[in-house]
Amino acid sequence: MADSCKLRVSGLVKRFGGLTATDGASFEVATGEVHALIGPNGAGKTTLIHQISGMLRPDGGRISMDGADITLLPMHRRVHLGLARSYQITSVFKTFSVLDNVAMAVQARTGGSRGFWRRARGEADLFGQALHALERVGLAARADAPARSLSHGEQRRLEVALALATAPSLLLLDEPMAGMGSDESEAMVDLLLGLRGEITMLLVEHDMNAVFRLADRISVLVYGRVIATGSPDAIRRDPEVCKAYLGDEEPA
User: I want to staple 168 with a disulfide (CB 3.0 to 4.6 A). Which of 61, 84, 137, 244 is the partner?
Assistant: First the structure.
């Protein structure tokens, strides 16, 4: 029987000298859900995502995925287990075409050609998978355009396509709406709603309207500790959360 818990973070600690960025952080992400991680600036959200993805090694605690301990696994091993992520700052090869960017992500997952992207161009199946990922994010019509020609919002959608090309079962999204206007944010919300239920997602985001539209459950991180986890309605009404983070804001 499949584990109903896709991701379990237990007592995670990360220190940078005298600063404790994550301080015994613990929460669980159920298989198939969209789980949002929110908190004020400096709460440790990105540090926590870095530890889950394997970019940073924790100083204490445990991370498990589908019941298997991944705490000490390198990033590439986690990708092969089905974990993918996007970043706050867009990280695409801007001189390559949109399709070539995604094809390289497919190639990294499948092994594909041992040569670089020019050799991979001849692999029809590889580029078919890449084009499918672009279709999922609404960028198929821009496949042959250089990535640098995309708008900011389109580049963020391209990053989601790169993640989808690795065939993830768990997707970490670090502020996917960062720097977007209202129309671009709406397009990203629609994209993520379309993936809901298909891929388990852990979402770090400051746009509270997007968070409360997307999330099945929300965890609130303050000073490196998770102070509450619950449904959007429960988080809205939690007095400790309102005092520490939400204040008088009421998401639409």
Answer: 84
Q: Which pLDDT tens digit goes with each residue over 154-194?
A: 998 999 999 999 899 999 999 898 888 889 999 999 999 99
Q: What are phi and psi of 141, to 5 degrees?
A: -70, -15
Residue type, 122: G
Helix (H) and strand (E) counts in the chain: 10, 10
* Farthest-apart Cα atoms in the chain, separation: 58
Closest-CA residue to 99 (of 60, 129, 56, 143): 143
Please say whether the dihedral angle defined by the alpha carbons of residues 212, 67, 77 and 45, taken in this order, is positive or negative: positive
Q: Distance of CA 155 to CAs 147, 152, 196, 202, 224, Å?
A: 7, 5, 21, 20, 30
Contacts of 235 (CB under 8 A, 6+ apart): 218, 220, 228, 241, 246
Q: How far apart are CA 23 and CA 61, in angstroms?
A: 10
The whole-angstrom separation of Cα 111 and Cα 113 is 7
Cβ partners under 8 Å of residue 113, min gap 6: 107, 119, 120, 122, 123, 126
CA distance 44 to 23: 9
pTM: 0.88
What's the Rg (C-alpha) of the chain? 18
d(CA 220, CA 27): 10
Q: Around Cβ 167, how many Cβ atoms within 10 Å?
A: 17
